Amino acid sequence: MDLDRRQLLVGSAAIVAARSTRLAAAATPGGDPALKALLDETADAILAEFPDNATFFGVDTGARVRLRSQLTDRSAAADRRRAAACDARLAKLRAFDASRLQGTDLVDLYCAIYAHERASEGYRFPYGDVFVLDTLLAEYNSPYVVNHNGSVFNQVPDFLDNIFKVAGAADGEAYLARLAAFAQELDDETARMNHDAAGGVMLPDFLMDTALKQETAYAAVPIAHWGLVTSLVRRMREQQVAGDWEARAMRICEARVAPALQRQIDALKALRPKATADAGVWKLPQGDAYYAWALKLGTTTDMSADEVHRLGLDQVRVISAEMDTLLRKQGLSEGSVGARMAALGKDPRFLYPDSDAGRAALLAYLNGRIAAVRAKLPQAFTRLHKADLEIKRVPPSIEAGAPDGYELDGAIDGSRPATYYINLRDMGNWPKFSLPTLCFHEGLPGHVWQGSFAHDLPLIRSMLQFNAYAEGWALYSEQLGDELGMYADDPFGRLGYLQSIQFRAVRLVVDTGLHAKRWTRDQAIRWMVDNNGNAYDAARGEIDRYCAWPGQACGYQIGHLHIDGLREQARAKLGPRFDVRRFNDVVVQAGSVPLTELDRIVDGWMA
Description:
Layout: H1 5-8, H2 13-17, H3 33-49, H4 52-57, H5 76-95, H6 104-123, H7 152-162, H8 169-198, H9 205-220, H10 227-238, H11 245-271, H12 287-299, H13 305-329, H14 337-345, H15 356-374, E1 389-393, E2 405-408, E3 418-422, H16 435-442, H17 447-454, H18 459-463, H19 467-483, H20 491-516, H21 521-532, H22 536-548, H23 555-574, H24 580-589, H25 595-606
Parallel strand pairs: 1-3
Antiparallel strand pairs: 2-3
């Protein structure tokens, strides 16, 4: 990246200055048997609380096979039990004698303690969902139990279709058990939503409208055509497993799921007249404290909202300057950087047709970019991984409220590849020049690559997710794509890359604007469009996401700056001995960690 490093790192000094000075050799193996027993016990307890993850990781076998028929209990009573269990586990983790540990054991224990501390803090708020320890939903922490892209209506149908592997009659029975459990989840969420609303916690009206639109559209489809039914039927036929699977699935959906879904729709409709357009969590009871927790969770730092906001403004200024230079080289000099990028995004030469053929062509292009960058990975790493992945469209039934792109790791045992999803609700959101960097972020060498190395770690470490590291690595991976020459003959692709980096800087401004500075939704959308040139629909979808998941979007740029800062420190300290491939190996093989722990790991490597 050609940005002046001193400018790129403006504002990140506060992050790096807080580095731990411990220099334990974190790259050395651990293996303390007492710690292993404690962490295995902790992992099993968390999987029992969030059984969906046992399937996600492919470990719902043997002693854990009972989890294959269960979904997470979403009742208020279960939430209280999880809070109490979290505190009890945290006490045991803190009491462990760490003085005898070395190497990776120290990292494993610290990560478990840190995650439980953040979860315990979240459970202190008498509303919302705390998903800190739930791998599948770890980024979806929200004050709103039912929302447009983080509640069970959005998650379970996709989980049953794309994550739950059906390979025989026993799996079919487990699927049906989970289908029935889905109905109970819907009712439990509805009850908690109503409870929270009585306490002054209510989804903004515009997000309530989106949730209602999604759910009413789904409910209007004949049950025989629901994916909840057709997914099971299709796979049982493929497996040639005899049985009345369609009839049984339909009976559960007709008798339990459809009524529960309608009850949630009715509850949303009843609350809708009371909802307001206030977008930020400042409006909630303990709203400022909630946002401080969300920022700490999202960034794994103690940065204040004001510090994050200023960092975002500085970053937008610096990155805009480089984009301006590149735009001028393409003969585009009139208007702001945002206006020029917006005009490029509407240029027909960069757009795929809004048709099935256009969507197929876009997916084919993404697969080509993945193949091209995979061939270059030996230039960035000394240790390579298979890292299989599939690229899929976000299911149309949830695309109205889903993020523009996201990734799901593959199973630990390799039975299911990683998947990265792209939201194709509006083809105008995806000019071709924006697509390569998405591949590097979600796929290789981003989330899919990092997740494949995480599977080599103890189970508890695969399960615990730290947003700033995971998203910071993915954003750093976009930078690696540039450094690997993926835009050498593609100036517009490089503009798309810079726009993506700036997009994450814009997030720092608008997220804190919404939740700490009382910006309106329209104000935040307009700021994103004006400063980054996003299509209006894409910006609207992003802003709506930040309204539901406060703080999460701030982890990307802060994590990226942190990794970049560590790289520059290593380069300065090691001089001619510095090898960027080995630095990348150390960071990606660390697994998901808080940023302060990443400092210690890199210090140990340099030492």
